[in-house]
Amino acid sequence: MDWSRTQAFSEERRGNIWINLQGRDPQGIVEPGIEYETLRSEIIAALESMAAPETGAPVVHKVWRREELFDGPFLDCIPDLLVEVESPSQFSIHRGDHSGPAIRLLTEQEINALTITGDHRMDGTLILHGPGIRSGVTITRVDMRDVLPTVLYMMGEPVPVYAEGRVVEEAFLAEWFAAHPLTYGGVGAQMRDQEGYAYSEKEHRWIEERLAGLGYMD
After folding, report:
1. What are the pLDDT digits (tens) for 174-194?
2. 169 CB neighbour count, 10 Å cutoff
3. Which of 9, 148, 152, 188 is buried deepest, with most CB atoms within 10 A?
4. CATH class (in words) of the domain with range 3-112
5. Residue range 11-27: mean pLDDT, rounded
């Protein structure tokens, strides 16, 4: 790859686009500021205008700027743009011979030969059960970031002050919530490198066992 001519690049099999940014990337060529934002807007417009030639159906549902989805001190670790394709489309790799059109529908044989990554729906299902939970109530909208604070509250643990999201108060009985005040605490990200912050040996073994049970460790 000729990085001196590369303005943006993507990871294989994922809808992540990085801008080759000066000051961040080793061989960055795009200047931060106006040039960076202009390039992001051009990429968004180009991708969101893509359509399947045989059907005219849109290929991309939305291209998100990272700050539209994420926040916090590690925002620079997130790709500059994240592509959400139209359902039921998915991301994969298909290496063509560059002799045909840039956009086309793959044949069934080509699709069967692909290695397709897992995909996710934007809307999921949250079910809560336990003391103080209102029964038979449907909560209209909960953000994924609300899950951690809510679960910690249900466990009787303080919610970290740096955590994004909120406790889903409307899921609890009013009298229960009043009798069990929400508390905040926890170790902030800026304190993790300070002396004295470490897992105990017992906690370390417990985490390893949990990760192994989920298939992340052998």
Report:
1. 999 999 999 998 655 455 555
2. 11
3. 152
4. alpha beta
5. 88
